[in-house]
Design goal:
There is one protein chain. 42% of the residues lie in helices and 0% in strands. It is mainly alpha-helical. The longest helix has 19 residues. The radius of gyration is 14 Å and the shape is globular.
Length: 119
């Protein structure tokens, strides 16, 4: 299964492919970024990202070190905020708001072993 096929798979299938070294976490992040770039103009679902940090985290991920190691995912800024990222809560009212701290759910994601995530 190549990265494009995996983009349509569930998280556990992607995690298994990374753990089995069929694909790397970095390849999955790159494929995810490509998919977002291709589809987001029509969807306008992703308003900001931390691609470089996600690639760094993916490069550091140790396959099999956690249940979802290397599986990229998106954090919606509705009550889940990432330090330094826009925190608009989907509203133009908060267009200039930037999170100053991680919310608890984001802090928990960060504590997962070698997780690769991006927002």
């Amino acid at each position: 299964m190549d990265t494009n096929d995996l983009l349509d798979a569930d998280a556990t299938t992607i995690a298994a492919a990374i753990a089995n070294r069929d694909v790397s976490a970095t390849e999955m992040v790159l494929a995810t970024l490509d998919r977002v770039e291709a589809r987001n103009p029509a969807l306008n679902a992703v308003v900001s990202h931390r691609a470089e940090a996600a690639l760094d985290e993916a490069a550091a991920a140790v396959p099999g070190s956690g249940p979802l190691t290397g599986v990229p995912f998106v954090i919606k800024d509705l009550y889940a905020e990432v330090t330094g990222m826009p925190a608009t809560s989907g509203s133009r009212l908060f267009a200039d708001r930037v999170a100053t701290v991680d919310t608890e759910i984001v802090a928990r994601y960060r504590r997962l072993p070698a997780s690769s995530w991006w927002a």
